[in-house]
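STRUCTURE:
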């Protein structure tokens, strides 16, 4: 609940930052152009995101499945409704755990906004869609993860279609899903559109920021599209009894690298994140979890990784820095599985006690995986675009 409340506050701030795109002058019908898609689904809330073609005032209607009683949710800022925005991230809270809900978007185009003459168009409604809140007592959690799609919507769709999306309760994008963000709306066409088509109306999508998501001028507005938790791109999330650490691995090169020309201050940011990490792995939420997963785009370098020659050759600056600063934290944190990407080459690095106390899967740029967690442990199946199974393994934890 605390996490969700903080997320709600963040969404309010986000809405204020969205000065709204200029009204589209073409005489199109007012419509929902992207989404709705779900983020930050917990046992008691969710964020519902969508975009409209015209600046508008929108809200979400939510009802428990089978009930006719409808609740309204909207974004408020200091006592004001958001009346002139195209991008919406509406926080729905106060829900019951392990309960199925239905929702729809309602939006009215802002026709006129003069001081004493404010007018809106007729409301448009999306279809009703459904989602189920998580059960905090559940031992089971099934998810899909992929990485390094680099704006390739067709590849994203093919990869995800080959995964058991019906069984999955969430889909994780472990970085470099969007590439060098140089235009507004890039996130929609590259990933949100295929995700919405395949699963995200009903199940949440989660992004772990990669190095290509901190490049391009518009990377600064990534949070218009991807809701953060507690205002950060790193967080500890719970899915039933499974704890998932979503980490932000920053850049693969130093801030002082010539190509960045002084625009990065990520080293200090990552250092703060590592200090947070040091504390969060001591928390009850992490320690008492039945299963513990880490997702980080750039894998922290370890000796077992260096011993794989093909991997050692391509270890970047960021990987080595994470290894030096945080490997000991991960090694003491009872991590059951770490999932990374970045290398564009698939590697499985088995656990080696004292050096890397967890198995590491490095996803390439043409594979995705399904992960099924239950009392038996963690079953992972990695499949590439050709349908070849790269890994089919059950990890005991
Ligand atoms: Fe990367």
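SEQUENCE:
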């Amino acid at each position: 609940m605390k996490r969700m409340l903080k997320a709600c506050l963040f969404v309010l701030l986000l809405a204020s930052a969205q000065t709204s795109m200029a009204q589209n002058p073409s005489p199109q019908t007012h419509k929902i152009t992207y989404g709705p898609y779900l983020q930050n689904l917990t046992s008691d809330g969710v964020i519902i995101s969508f975009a409209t073609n015209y600046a508008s005032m929108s809200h979400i209607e939510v009802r428990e499945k089978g009930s006719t009683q409808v609740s309204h949710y909207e974004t408020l800022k200091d006592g004001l409704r958001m009346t002139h925005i195209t991008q919406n991230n509406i926080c729905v809270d106060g829900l019951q755990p392990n309960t199925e809900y239905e929702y729809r978007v309602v939006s009215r185009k802002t026709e006129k906004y003069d001081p004493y003459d404010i007018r809106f168009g007729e409301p448009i409604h999306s279809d009703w869609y459904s989602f189920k809140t998580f059960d905090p007592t559940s031992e089971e959690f099934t998810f899909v993860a992929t990485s390094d799609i680099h704006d390739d919507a067709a590849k994203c769709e093919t990869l995800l279609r080959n995964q058991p999306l019906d069984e999955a309760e969430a889909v994780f994008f472990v970085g470099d899903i969007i590439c060098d963000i140089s235009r507004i709306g890039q996130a929609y066409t590259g990933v949100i559109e295929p995700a919405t088509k395949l699963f995200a109306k009903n199940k949440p999508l989660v992004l772990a920021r990669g190095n290509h998501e901190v490049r391009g001028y518009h990377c600064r507005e990534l949070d218009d599209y991807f809701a953060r938790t507690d205002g950060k791109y790193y967080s500890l999330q719970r899915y039933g009894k499974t704890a998932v650490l979503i980490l932000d691995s920053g850049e693969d090169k130093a801030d002082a690298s010539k190509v960045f020309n002084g625009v990065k201050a990520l080293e200090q940011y990552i250092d703060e994140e590592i200090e947070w990490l040091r504390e969060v792995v001591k928390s009850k939420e992490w320690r008492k979890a039945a299963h513990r997963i880490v997702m980080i785009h750039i894998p922290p370098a370890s000796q077992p990784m260096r011993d794989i020659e093909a991997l050692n050759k391509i270890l970047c600056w960021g990987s080595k820095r994470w290894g030096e600063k945080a490997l000991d934290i991960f090694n003491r944190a009872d991590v059951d599985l770490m999932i990374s990407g970045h290398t564009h080459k698939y590697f499985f690095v088995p656990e080696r006690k004292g050096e890397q106390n967890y198995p590491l899967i490095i996803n390439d740029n043409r594979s995705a995986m399904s992960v099924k967690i239950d009392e038996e442990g963690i079953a992972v199946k990695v499949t590439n675009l050709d349908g070849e199974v790269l890994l089919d393994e059950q990890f005991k934890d």
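REMARK: Residues 175-176, 210-212, 297, 342 surround fe (ii) ion (CB under 6 Å).
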